[in-house]
Amino acid sequence: MIVMKFGGTSVGSPERIRSLAERVRERLTQHPVVVVSALSGVTDLLVRGAQLALARDSDYESVVFQVLDRHHAAIRELLPAGPAQTRLLDHLEATAAELRALYTGVYHLAELTARTLDAISGIGERLSYEIVASALDHLGVAARAVDARGVIVTDETFGRATPLMDETTTAAARTVRPLVEQRVVPVLPGFIGSTRKGVATTLGRGGSDWSAAAIGAALGADEIQIWTDVDGMMTVDPRVVPSARVIPEVSFDEAAELAYFGAKVLHPATIKPAVERGIPVRILNSLNPAAPGTLIAGRVEGAERGEPRAIAFKKGIAVILIAQPRMLMAYGFVARVFEVFDRHRTPVDLIATSEVSISLTVDDPQAAPAVQEELASLGDVKVLGTMAIVSIVGRGFIRQPGLAARVFQALREVNVVMISFGASDVNLSFVVAEADAERAVHLLHREFFEGAR
Question: What is this structure's pTM?
Answer without folding.
Answer: 0.84
